[in-house]
Write a structure and sequence with these properties.
The complex is a heterotrimer.
Chain A lengths: L2 E6 L8 H10 L9 E9 L2 E9 L8 H5 L5 E3 L6 E3 L9 H5 L6 E2 L13 H6 L8 E2 L5 H5 L5 H5 L5 E5 L6 H9 L14 E4 L4
Parallel strand pairs in A: 1-9
Antiparallel strand pairs in A: 1-8, 2-3, 4-5, 6-7
Chain B lengths: L7 E6 L2 E7 L12 H4 L2 H4 L9 E3 L12 E3 L2 H18 L4 E5 L4 H15 L4 E3 L7 H11 L4 E3 L6 E5 L11 H14 L2 E5 L5 H5 L2 E3 L6 H15 L5 H6 L6 E2 L15 E4 L4 E4 L13 E4 L2 E5 H9 L4 H8 L3 H14 L5 E4 L2 E4 L3 E5 L1 H4 L4 H14 L9 E3 L18 E2 L5 E2 L28 H4 L8 H6 L12 E5 L3 H4 L3 H8 L3 E6 L4 H6 L2 E4 L8 E2 L14 E7 L12 H12 L2 H12 L15 H13 L5 H7 L1 E5 L2 H4 L14 H17 L29 E6 L13 H9 L6 E4 H6 L7 E6 L4 E9 L6 E5 L30 E2 L4 E2 L3 E7 L4
Parallel strand pairs in B: 5-6, 5-22, 8-9, 8-18, 9-10, 22-23, 23-24, 28-32, 29-31
Antiparallel strand pairs in B: 1-2, 3-4, 3-24, 7-19, 11-15, 12-13, 14-15, 16-17, 20-21, 25-26, 26-27, 28-35, 29-32, 30-31, 30-35, 33-34
Helix pairs in contact in B: 4-20, 4-21, 5-14, 8-11, 8-12, 8-14, 11-12
Chain C lengths: L1 E7 L13 E5 L6 H12 L3 H5 L10 E5 L2 E3 L8 H5 L4 E5 L7
Classes of the chains: A alpha+beta, B alpha/beta, C alpha+beta.
């Protein structure tokens, strides 16, 4: 099984719901946005185009972050291809942060809270699941997968622009969409072979 | 977190709320939320929330002046408030003014529907209606028998949006509409967005039509002209049988009426004479033409519309809008052809007209002082092609409900008035009569600062502060003694802050609020700590239907129950109202009005002056609607009750015969009555020339050229902010900081460079009607060259909102609020400004 | 019979009957809701005056009439003597769209 995601750029409206859904699910600190959105604009008035591109860890088939990790903390799971960080093993060298071409990894040094007044009750509860001095990233919500639920970002997307499934199964929704709707990866020339695919905005 | 009140679920760990997510069992959202809804936790646990009652120690009130808050106890606060209210009630209850925020809709309605009338005050206003749907609500009622509208995207092929982002970032029932609009677009629905700014909706559009702000009405008039005059694409059957198209108009602009019955006349072609519209055995009716009736030349309503829009050639409209004439021609043709006039579809075994084209508009298009005729012009695009209240077209928000299968409640439906015209059923509440008050409007006088007696039909009357500042011009014989403000940040949300400050500076002000915001800081004597939506019980928070999605699907009613008990000393405003009512001795009328609000009948009705708790009232409301098996306890456990909509509820047109009024006699009548009242009382500035029964267009104030001020400044909406409160939310602020536009002033690249402004430069925007904005320029191709665009509701300055302070740009300081900038029909306002811009040095 | 009437939600100036105003009317023993409406029109003028002209058999849409806590619907409905003269009296509510309905 190779778990992957398809993000339909025609459906996506760039509302940042995924960014906050991920944060709400995983209780990440300020500045750590495992899911985020990149915005682009091109053309000349009045023929202008804008595009919102949600990005997250690509769970690459050939992950550079795993390659550079000196401790083996950064791993790719055999059974489903999820790339994750074993926090107890990570020493925070940040080689992976530099190696990742998609900016998907976040070093946890700045232990700031959101309001700058000390952690509120919510933050006290959720930040305890995170370690200081290590690198964190999206793990396709492993804890939800164990419960039979899809990742929070795709479960919540109000345009249903994120579809999650098994790329190794040719009849899965993700495989079918990639095949039929002209799916593409970001920066394939880097040889990373992402598990996150995109469907074109124009089709 | 916003007006839409989507269905949510919360997860707690050891009493702490750790996650909010959508509720998949609730048709409002179907389990998915926008960024705002997901971020609610940071509202709950924001350390800057008002946690205890506050009293001002600094007697000097002023914008940005430190009130010197001291914390006091609830009893002390309520004692003082009660004393003031008792005094006001004895002297003149009209001295209690009330304003509230629609975000917190349930408690707001509770106050408006029970406490205020029980107290005896008519002086309520909702502060931000002119930034919202004031004009749209009127036509949602007259043409769609509802309060709001949404297109039936499930069957739509062509969606034309004017200054609106339905399902594409904002607007009603967003979380459900977003799913449906995405589905429709993937299916092939084309989206055309008319907007000065390339925002969220235009980004997804198949075509972005940049337009000069406030000129959407001209574009719509030209499209109407092309459809009904040049292309002759219109739904004759619809106009003749389901609208007042065939009604005859006399030269004086009134319906020609039967002398005996008073009924509007139509021209019976077979009989060769004018007959009442409801005469038995009518022959074929004329839809167009001029006819002689009792030696008066009359024309049909449709003929009048044709003649009215005839001057709006594409060339004339191109001049007004900046949209090329060829584009206008193409837009009209595409819209008309997409409507597939004459086609039908079958839904649940019922054959219905299919008109898969919808034109929709909202604040961007009608937030101007030409709001009424603009809105009318755009609505009529749907009417002339018959795309109104049918599959694929523009629907009112659930005008018909036959009730839960077990109880037949709640229940409402439209009917026809004496003239055969569409008349809405209950709008906001479960009205046992199934009818709605307030229509037709009857201007009487100008004695109420909220203008309810003069132009009372806009649901949200927000002109009050401006009227108070212009009191000599009106006939007010009372002034605000007490302002009870439920959460509304008037100073930021209405217009320039001075407008609201001046209006209420001499009043005793009580703000019930989440934060010590700009309004509380400047004006409040007492601030009461409000329980936010996560900390309180509100039965039936979505009321009857206008939060609910349109189209086929399920009805769903839910509960808002506390995810945590109110923290610190926060209290639910509804419970505060009950306490105040008791102290004032008005529990009895309040009970009666509560029965009215929720449509409670025996055995669930509240009795006499018995003091009921809020939970008890909630329980009775649920039982009254859904039976004794579905009381409060059931809802606390199950959360949502659902049942499928019937096709005769959703697409009710074939089942209820009532004609959509294309011609608005009521506006003409109101205009004359208002003019008469104004003349009678020597009022200045009352311009009733905009009370037009058919559409036309003239530029808004900010659209008119002014020497030295070459640009128009507008604000636009982003999907992660709403009203001004969200700027205090750090998860939402985090979005803005990572997003290219929302903390900047957007300016067209070429325009900027011609003024030697580069991306990131500090610039100053000066309003021709006063006010100055400072911010940093973001150069973009995605904005009309004559327009500056700012994201809504930023720029806080209150010390009580330290996280929000200084973030974004405070647009409304460019806006005056006065009769000159107001559309009197709808009490909408020109929400844009004529400005000039220059680069300034960094401070 | 003597009917105690209380007005709620009234718009307009003092002269037209302010909200919360309470007064007694002497009416016939078989007084109906419609009769009371007419009496109010005589005493308080518009908006009751306009209401009297409404055509159908029900009370006008912007007026709610309660005898005690029982809501009256039809103009021909009699005000039960017990409720009218007793503790509840009759409460008449003038509605705006924001208040109900």
């Amino acid at each position: 099984m190779r778990l992957g995601m398809v993000i339909d750029l025609k459906r996506c409206i760039g509302c940042y719901g995924c960014q906050v859904a991920c944060k709400a699910e995983n209780g990440t600190r300020p500045g750590t946005t495992w899911a985020r959105v990149v915005k682009r604009e091109w053309g000349e008035y009045p023929d202008v185009k804008k595009l919102s591109i949600p990005v997250l860890c690509m769970h690459c088939g050939e992950p550079p972050c795993v390659e550079v990790c000196p401790t083996g903390a950064s791993q790719k799971r055999e059974r489903d291809g999820i790339v994750f960080v074993e926090g107890d093993v990570c020493v925070g060298c940040r080689a992976c942060v530099m190696a990742c071409p998609y900016g998907a990894r976040y070093y946890q040094d700045d232990q700031s809270d959101y309001f700058g007044q000390g952690e509120n009750a919510y933050e006290q509860c959720v930040y305890s699941a995170h370690q200081k001095g290590v690198v964190e990233k999206c793990d396709f919500c492993r804890h939800r997968l164990e419960r039979g639920e899809e990742p929070a970002c795709s479960a919540n997307c109000m345009c249903k622009a994120r579809i999650f499934g098994d790329l190794d199964d040719p009849e899965s929704d993700v495989s079918r969409l990639i095949r039929e709707e002209g799916g593409f990866q970001l920066n394939p020339e880097l040889g990373t072979d992402p598990s996150v695919w995109y469907l074109p905005q124009e089709r | 977190m916003c007006y839409n009140q989507c269905g949510i679920r919360g997860h707690r760990v050891d009493g702490t709320l750790v996650k909010i997510e959508g509720n998949p069992e609730n048709p409002i959202g179907r389990g998915r939320l926008c960024a705002r809804g997901l971020a609610g936790i940071q509202l709950l646990y924001d350390p800057h929330r008002v946690d205890r009652p506050l009293r001002r120690t600094n007697p000097e009130k002023g914008i940005g002046v430190d009130p010197g808050w001291e914390e006091i106890g609830w009893d002390e606060a309520l004692d003082e408030i009660t004393e003031r209210l008792v005094r006001v009630r004895e002297q003149d209850p009209r001295g209690l003014f009330f304003s509230g925020t629609v975000i917190s809709l349930a408690p707001l309605m509770h106050a408006l529907g029970t406490f205020l009338p029980a107290f005896g005050s008519p002086s309520a206003f909702v502060s931000d209606g002119h930034h919202c749907g004031n004009a749209e609500h009127i036509l949602a009622r007259t043409l769609h028998a509802s309060v709001t509208t949404n297109p039936d995207v499930a069957h739509c092929d062509h969606l034309l949006l004017f200054g609106c982002q339905a399902g594409l970032g904002t607007y009603y029932a967003l979380t459900t509409m977003a799913q449906d609009v995405a589905d429709a677009r993937v299916r092939g629905m084309k989206v055309v967005v008319v907007d000065p700014f390339l925002g969220t909706a235009a980004e997804k559009a198949d075509e972005w039509v940049p337009i000069k702000p406030g000129s959407d009405g001209a574009l719509a008039c030209a499209m109407l002209h092309l459809l009904v005059n040049e292309y002759r694409i219109f739904d004759a059957d619809y106009l003749r049988d389901h609208a007042d198209g065939p009604y005859l108009l006399a030269e004086d602009g009134w319906y020609a009426r039967d002398l005996e019955s008073g009924k509007p006349l139509v021209w019976d072609i077979d009989a060769g004479e004018a007959r009442p519209f409801d005469a038995p055995d009518l022959g074929a009716l004329a839809l167009e033409g001029h006819y002689l009736v009792e030696s008066t030349t009359c024309r049909t309503v449709f003929q009048a519309l044709r003649e009215q829009v005839a001057r709006w050639t594409p060339e004339v409209a191109a001049e007004a809008t900046g949209v090329p004439a060829a584009v206008i021609r193409r837009m009209a043709r595409e819209f008309g052809e997409a409507a597939r006039i004459g086609s039908t579809t079958v839904i649940d075994g019922v054959e219905l007209p299919l008109r898969p084209a919808s034109a929709l508009y909202f604040k961007g298009a009608h937030g101007h002082d030409n709001a009424w005729p603009t809105s009318l012009a755009i609505e009529l695009l749907n009417e002339v092609v018959g795309a109104s209240n049918v599959p694929g077209g523009l629907l009112g928000t659930n005008p018909v409900c036959l009730g839960h299968p077990e109880t037949g409640s709640p229940r409402w439906q439209p009917g026809a008035d004496g003239d055969g015209l569409l008349e809405a059923g209950a709008l906001l509440y479960n009205d046992p009569f199934g009818r709605s008050p307030g229509w037709p409007p009857t201007p009487e006088s100008a004695e109420l600062p909220n203008l309810r007696d003069l132009v009372g039909w806009p649901i949200t009357t927000c002109f009050t502060p401006a009227a108070l500042n212009d009191r000599e011009n009106f006939s007010f014989d009372h002034a605000p003694q007490v302002l009870l403000n439920y959460g509304s940040n008037l100073l930021m949300s209405v217009a320039r802050p001075e407008v609201c400050f001046e209006a209420f500076r001499d009043a005793f002000v009580v703000c019930v609020n989440l934060y010590s915001d700009e309004t509380a800081e400047a004006l409040a004597d007492i601030v009461l700590p409000d329980a936010c939506y996560l900390e309180r019980l509100d039965p039936l928070p979505n009321f009857t239907r206008h939060h609910h999605p349109v189209g086929m699907g399920d009805w769903g009613h839910t509960i808002r129950q506390p995810m945590v008990e109110p923290l610190y000393e926060r209290r639910h405003f509804s419970e505060v109202l009950l306490e105040l009512a008791h102290r004032l001795g008005i529990t009895e009328p309040m009970n009666l009005l509560t029965n009215n609000l929720f449509g409670l009948t025996p055995p669930h009705a509240l009795e006499g002056g018995v003091r009921y708790g809020w939970r008890e009232i909630a329980d009775r409301a649920y039982r009254s609607w859904f039976g004794d098996e579905h009381g409060l306890e059931w809802f606390e456990e199950h959360g949502v009750i659902t049942w499928p909509k019937k096709v005769e509820e959703v697409f009710w047109k074939p089942f209820i015969h009532a004609r959509a009024p294309i011609y608005n006699e009521w506006v003409k009548r109101s205009g004359e009555q208002v003019a008469e009242i104004a003349l009678d009382r020597g009022m200045k500035g009352i311009d009733t020339s905009g009370f037009l029964p058919l559409p036309d267009w003239r530029p808004c104030r900010a659209g008119r050229p002014r020497e030295g001020y070459d640009l128009q400044a507008i604000y636009y909406r982003v999907p992660w902010h709403t009203f001004s409160m969200t700027y205090e939310n750090p998860w939402l602020d985090e979005i803005s900081r990572g997003e290219p536009y929302s903390y900047f002033i957007c300016i067209n690249t070429a325009t900027a460079r011609a003024k030697e402004i580069e991306d990131g430069d500090s610039i100053e925007v000066e309003g021709a009607d006063g006010g100055t904005l400072r911010g940093r320029a973001r150069l973009t191709e995605g904005v009309h060259p004559d327009v500056l665009a700012v994201a809504n509701n930023g720029g806080h300055w209150a010390k009580g909102m330290p996280f929000a302070r200084g973030k974004g740009i405070f647009f409304n300081q460019l806006l005056p609020m006065d009769l000159e900038h107001t559309d009197l029909v709808s009490l909408s306002m020109d929400c844009d400004a004529r400005v000039r811009v220059r680069k300034v040095e960094e401070a | 019979m003597r009917v105690t009437v209380k007005l709620l939600g009234v718009l307009g100036s003092r002269d037209r009957g302010r909200s919360g105003r309470c007064f007694d009317l002497t009416l016939s023993d078989d007084v109906t809701a419609g009769d009371l409406l007419r009496a109010l029109a005589d005493r308080c003028g518009a908006p009751f005056r306009d209401a009297v002209e409404s055509p159908d058999g029900r009370l006008p849409r912007h007026i709610r009439m309660f005898a005690g806590s029982e809501m009256l619907v039809e103009r021909e409905q009699a005000l039960a003597p017990a409720s009218a003269a007793g503790a509840g009296g009759v409460t008449v509510v003038l509605l705006t769209p924001m208040m109900g309905g």
